[in-house]
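Q: Structure tokens for this one, please.
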Amino acid sequence: MVNCNLQRLDGPVRGNSKIIQELERLYRGAGWRVIKVVWGSAWDELIAKDREGHLLRRFEALVDGESQRYAAFGGKELRERFFNTPELKRLIEGMTDEELTELTRSRGGHDLRKIYAAYKMAVEHKGSPVVILARTIKGYGMGPTAMAKNVAHQVKKLTEEDLREARAFLGIPIPEERLKDLPYYHPGEDAPEVRYLKERRKALGGFLPERRVRFKGGLEVPGEDFFREFYEGSGGREISTTMAFVRILAKLLRHPTIGKLIVPIVPDEARTFGMEALIAQVGVYSPQGQLYIPVDAGTLTAYKESKEGQILEEGITEAGAMADFIAAGTAYAHWGIPTIPFLITYSMFGLQRVGDLVWAAADQRTRGFLLGATAGRTTLLGEGLQHQDGQSHVYALAAPNLLAYDPAFAYEFAVILEDGLRRMYGKGEDVFYYITIENENYVHPPMPEPREEVKEGILKGLYLFRKGEGKGPRVQLWGTGPILPEAIKAQDLLAQYGVVADVWSATSYKALYYDAMEAERERRLLGKARTPHVRAVLEGHEGPVVAATDYLKALPNLVRDHVGRPFCALGTDGFGRSDTREALRDFFEVDARHIAYAALALLHEEGKVGAEVLERARGELGLKLEEVPPHRR
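A: Here is the predicted structure, written as tokens:
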């Protein structure tokens, strides 16, 4: 049901044409049955008299801006400007301006008989969805100040003239002398209107809206045993986190309990994400099935459409894919079916394009996993501005129940996924997840020991990946996603200058930020002295912090004030470039050399490294020390 009052905030929606006709084309083109409720019953007699079609032709020539003028100024305006030919003038012979004013207000969306007839037609229709396009008047019944006027949205108070006209128009029996007091009117408990309203509210469960959730949680989800194989690394092979995700997703689709509930959603380019085998395995959903032989028929990864297909592929529409995600992610509440959506998009085309829909998903308590694939600003070779994402994790900060992670290794991703299934579908929590995955290949190590401590750190946002060995000035290196391997290389570079570095994986700056904010609030309001995770986990590990990410410096800087020691954030502020990974990381100053040099500079400021060491490192590392920062080039 679309309420077509023809008006937006500033004026007519389509002043020079017709919004209803435009909507009809769109819905008919999509295969819907369209029912238009345009003119009210007051027009019926004139339409019946119009044997030669003069009135219908005038309707066809009527644009929305003109129609709004008649609704605003009444019968005199209609007589002069609408019934403006001899044939049309004859149709209204003998009609008063008051009767013509009734015509200006007689739109189908305000005519209960016509609305009822439209609903009846819609309910009885079979074979396709139905839309009712109902023409109404913005500010209907509000009087001359607002009705059909451009100011209708801004009117906060009605004049006495408006109130007088609204009283008469709506048939409210309030005496003239009481009108200025704005009294409430109640027709009485036994009035048929009141009885009807109470009956309907009772049928709907009460007077206040209530969110009814049919599935409360308790789904038997895979536990650690299911994911343990992904804790063991890639066995020396170089893989990407996207490949790790696809392997886990393929295993989930085969799971005897939840496999049928998995809903992979891809706007396009599933093959880019390495999902061609999944297409052959479970198929792309199509209500028609597959009416053709695909060009790759006979291969192991043939394109397969099926009425039983599980993958939803919308075809280069992130908004359409996000609508699928919300529908699948709220099915637990609406239908009692806890479907588990995985929406996989280019990260650059994800939160940036559908941020409003992400907020809507959060507000509707959608559950599921948003995967920002081919993520990061420096992981794509030669892709330039088009694909390089350095900001989606900043966008993810906006939705309070969206948990955001940037894992570097398969075991990190597995831990996050296991946690998400447990929280959303096992415990029934109203959260959903944004996880970035990259296409850069490198060796994925097994999960370090002690594993329970590492798993806790992954979920809280920061854990010690590799402790530095030896004696000398110490520094703490944080890496996220594909930049973590750069931090590991920087650890080796620093050893050449007598510096010992501990390497940390920062899996979620949002998690660290929220925890630090909560700890600060607890101290301020509740008198609780709790050390936030980002600071507590560093206890016993001396030295300043260098935090490097493939995203904006704003992310690590979220926790700068909570670390309690010198801190340097390295990130990818600025536009992307079409170049190699090595060149991009040098340009944005996030590679191993820049991480190592930043650590030496912090130690120099503390007096723990001499100026001669800095000078030597500058030459040996081959840094291009530009005056102009990357975000201004």
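A few notes: The first strand starts at residue 2 and ends at 4. The chain is about 40% helix and 10% strand.
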